[in-house]
C-alpha cells in the first residue's frame, strides 16, 4: 500500500485509490458534483493545507531563503495537534490502503506538497517516491 503525492486535476494512476485535496480552496468554476470525475479530488481535506498567510509566503518565494521560510512556517502549522493527528492517521492508513494527497501547483518542488511528502515520510508513511 502507498501514498502518492499528486497534482490535482491530472489523470489518476492505476490503483491510486482515494484522492485527497489538501488545498485551502476548492477548484474555481467546477461544480462540487464533478470534483472527482474531473480528477480534482474525492475528499477535500483543508486541515493539511497552508493557512492563507503561509500560502502567500510560498507563492511569493523567489529565493531559496524565502522558500525555506515558507517551509518552516508550514511545518510549524502542521505541528498543531489537529494537523499532527491527521498526518499520523494518514501515515497509519498508508500501510493498509492506497490513496493520494495533492495540490494544484504545477511543480511539486515549489508547492506545499513537497513539504507534506516529507512530513508524511517522517511520520512513517509508506509513500511512493517522487519521480
Automatic annotation (TrEMBL):
- Pfam families xrefs: DUF488-N3a (PF22751)
Q: Where is the DUF488 domain?
A: 3-124
Q: What is this protein called?
A: DUF488 family protein
InterPro entries, A to Z: DUF488-N3a
Amino acid at each position: 500500500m502507498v501514498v502518492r503525492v499528486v497534482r490535482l486535476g491530472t489523470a489518476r494512476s492505476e490503483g491510486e485509490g482515494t484522492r485527497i485535496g489538501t488545498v485551502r480552496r476548492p477548484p474555481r468554476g467546477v461544480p462540487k458534483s464533478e470534483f472527482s470525475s474531473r480528477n480534482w479530488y474525492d475528499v477535500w481535506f483543508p486541515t493539511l493545507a497552508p493557512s492563507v498567510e503561509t500560502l502567500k509566503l510560498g507563492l511569493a518565494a523567489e529565493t531559496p531563503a524565502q522558500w525555506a521560510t515558507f517551509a518552516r512556517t508550514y511545518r510549524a502549522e502542521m505541528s498543531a495537534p489537529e494537523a499532527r493527528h491527521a498526518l499520523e492517521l494518514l501515515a497509519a492508513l498508508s500501510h493498509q490502503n492506497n490513496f493520494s494527497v495533492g495540490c494544484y501547483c504545477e511543480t511539486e518542488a515549489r508547492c506545499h506538497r513537497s513539504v507534506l511528502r516529507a512530513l508524511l515520510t517522517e511520520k512513517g508513511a509508506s509513500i511512493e517516491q517522487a519521480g
